[in-house]
Amino acid sequence: xxxxxxxxxIQPLQRTTADANPCAACKVRDLSICGAIEPEHLGKLDAIxxxxxxxxxxxxxxxxxxxxxxxxxxxxxxxxxxxLADGRRQVTGFLFPSDFLGLALRERYAYxxxxxxxxxxxxxxxxxxxxxxxxxxxxxxxxxxxASNELAAAQDQMLLLGRKTALExxxxxxxxxxxxxxxxxxxxxxxxPMTRTDIGDYxxxxxxxxxxxxxxxxxxxxxxxxxxxxxxxxxxxxLAALAGxxxxxxxxxxx
Amino acid sequence: xxxxxxxxxIQPLQRTTADANPCAACKVRDLSICGAIEPEHLGKLDAIxxxxxxxxxxxxxxxxxxxxxxxxxxxxxxxxxxxLADGRRQVTGFLFPSDFLGLALRERYAYxxxxxxxxxxxxxxxxxxxxxxxxxxxxxxxxxxxASNELAAAQDQMLLLGRKTALExxxxxxxxxxxxxxxxxxxxxxxxPMTRTDIGDYxxxxxxxxxxxxxxxxxxxxxxxxxxxxxxxxxxxxLAALAGxxxxxxxxxxx
DNA sequence: CTGCAGCCTTGATCTGCGTCAAAATGCTGC
DNA sequence: GCAGCATTTTGACGCAGATCAAGGCTGCAG
Lengths: 255, 255
Prior knowledge:
The structure is a homodimer. The first copy, chain A, is α+β, with helices and mostly antiparallel strands.
């Protein structure tokens, strides 16, 4: 289903004049947990960070690997997934820039992480980051807030998987992506960097059902396809209704 | 589907000689986040705790209620659930003694919490507990660990809801309960205090399908019913295989 | 340009689980 | 004990979505 790909090597941080203090210049800092650290202390983060790049399809880590690192995604899209012994796969989430990854303060990763497209990450050794957490309680509090939000999102996903119809699931998926894009400025254009197989494995459907549902949304003029990977939401209200979204979904949400 | 029930009043802590320092005597303390506080500081927890009891069917809080409290379950079983506008319900979890509840450091609860049977809880006002977290970083670290475990459990549940068959879902459910009971001594007897409707809404199935799957497990001599609510696991190995559990499921897990 | 290889879409058919219905079982109060 | 009610189990049938099977589209190599 998914190609394992070679395990890439860590690329050590390249220190040049352009990025002598890269964290300070980072475009996702305010959105992510690093935002909890005051600018004058960012050097301590820089000191332990390593940068890593993956090509589409490459694996960051496998389910069951010993978890020794935490990551922040700075560019691209990452797919998290779990597998059953016979190959059935569940994608448990898609990550986008500013998302946090590896928040298992556990022994091993509970899921695999793979690059959907070209991906850049900041990598922090777990033990050294934990030492920083002791120094910066605000960062730990932020981490708890992130975990809390992820837990709420996981519960939404359970509702989707347990009780929504195929059309509602696909509508919910587009709706969630739309809201994420809105947070970053884009109004109504949603890009789907992942394949239909990925979407199906995320929504508990087959690719055929995903495709048919997308076609129905297109026929009903809820969305419009620009390319197979990019679509425009034409009728956001109807999309929200299909997704079973709360009434106050228009209110901006923050991390 | 579920009866809302009257919102019970908070019962103020009764200070008697028998429980002058109840937290110290609490039977779930070691299992829960309170275990992170040294005995000599337990008084500070006692100072802000309120005890609460609910009868079967009563509601602790509703999805969307302003979240001003955190709870630790000391006795009984609590059901967490989310609803769609038309009444479809997803049970997102069942809680048992020592479980933590309300770990939304968010504005509002993302789910409703109802008593499955007679329930006792410790209630902590959110702002006062947060003040304690500042004093006891170990407690905050423990909270993060709890959140991390819940996140992993949520991902397991996504795999179940998205990719497992009805029989596998029911087997997984019994298997998970069995492991929880094992942590507390019981070997192979599992009690199901919740109704078939609750189980169905947890597993994304109807009560009829739950019942049929249980009957099949019984026919195949995987489990044996003592009463409709209590069953004995006869063939744990086959149960684990059906549940799609990892090979190392026999290893004890701790909080 | 042409040919090939991956995806994606669409159609036809099948099936696991939902729905509808009714009987069995258990629980409570008398 | 027995009546009355709620819950669970079992059976018959239907349907949403899976499976099986063609095409169609897009991008890349030559």
